[in-house]
Amino acid sequence: MDMVGACRAFVSVSERGSFTLGAAAAHIPQPVASRRIAALEKHLGARLFDRSTRRATLTPFGRDMLPSARRLVQLAEAMEYDAERARLAPVRLAVPDICATRDLARLDVEARRRGLRLDFHPAPPERRTELLRSQQVRAAITGVPQDEGYWAVPLGLASAAEPRVRTVYVETLRAGRADAARRRIWIQPEDDVPHIRDRLMRVRDTAGLRAGQVAVATALTGAAAEVLGSADFLLCSRGQAAELGLHWRPTGEVSLARGYDVAAATADDAERLRAHLRDGIARCLGAPVGPEAAE
After folding, report:
1. How does strand 151-159 pair with strand 233-237?
2. Could you tell me which residue ranges the HTH lysR-type domain spans (predicted)?
3. Over 80: is that where the pLDDT of 181 sits?
4. Percentage of the chain with pLDDT > 70?
């Protein structure tokens, strides 16, 4: 038996003294209200209304049960209100701080169409992980090795001057090649993670570059300034290079990519974000979208 529905019909009819008016106030047909009240009477073991009169008059038992029924209905309504608030509460989501404001705004619009509200918290990789661990956010887009990620963003080297080659080989920066020894590769904070940084460092060592020729920047702005004002390279995605007005080329010795996935307090939250917002998140990250993602 639907106890809440039966009590709601009972309270509504008792307050209006009529099965017809009470059913209308409860937004149910009068026969449904009658059946629910009859089921409640059977469940409780006694009559709630005196049916010998034209009005819906409470029996002594009905008067005794009415306060409890009201409390149950009020509690149910409070629970429904709380559930609605919980559904509308924004999902606090930690995102890479390299995501463009416009792309995040478009993602928010897409999420709202699917009944989700997002509250973005841009942060570098380690901070995103900490925000999730400390439960300051419900979910985070985290960096993972490319083969473990749900999204992948190819990386290459970008420079202020357009390279004359289609692919940039790290070994061409080795000392002894004209002024190549003074050229550096800058790693931005988003890529200061072992599965990207360490692989590039190994290529540096194999190619015979000096230690300082691959440097980790404390901020993307600083790294971009170094590159714009010199012949240095920035390790970045093709989209970032375009935003910064740089010329992008793939690397020759190693294929590097940012891998991303969603980590969340619950598996349901993570899966919902992956399934419903796959393309929107991909745009924010600079990952391939739609048919390109399958290539």
Report:
1. antiparallel
2. 1-59
3. no
4. 95
Matching residue, tokens 């990207």: 196
Contacts of 232 (CB under 8 A, 6+ apart): 159, 183, 184, 185, 186, 226
CATH topology of domain 91-148+259-294: D-Maltodextrin-Binding Protein; domain 2 (3.40.190)
> What one-character DSSP code corresponds to residue 176?
T
pLDDT confidence tier of residue 291, bands split at 50, 70 and 90? low
User: CA–CA distance from 35 to each of 9, 63, 82, 165, 230 (Å)?
Assistant: 10, 19, 29, 81, 83
Using one digit for the tens of pLDDT, what is the confidence trace for 143-153? 999 999 999 99
Task: Fill in the DSSP letter of residue 117.
Answer: -
- The answer on pLDDT for 64 being more than 80 is yes
Amino acid at 200: L
Look at domain 3-87 and name its CATH class. Answer: mainly alpha
- Report the distance separating Cα 6 and Cα 204, nearest Å: 74
Q: Residue 13 in contact with residue 33, Cβ under 8 Å?
A: yes
Q: Tell me, what's the pLDDT at 287?
A: 93
What is the pairing mode between strands 91-96 and 139-144?
Answer: parallel
Query: What is the domain partition of the chain in residue ranges?
Result: 3-87, 91-148+259-294, 151-257
Assign a CATH topology to domain 151-257: D-Maltodextrin-Binding Protein; domain 2 (3.40.190)
Q: For residue 154, what are the β-bridge partners?
A: 257
- Do the domains 91-148+259-294 and 151-257 sit in the same CATH topology, yes or no? yes
40 by Cβ neighbours in 10 Å (0-12 / 13-18 / 19+) ranks as: buried
Q: Find how far residue 15's CA is from the centre of its chain.
A: 46
Q: How much of the chain is helix, strand and coil, in % rounded to 5?
A: 55, 20, 30
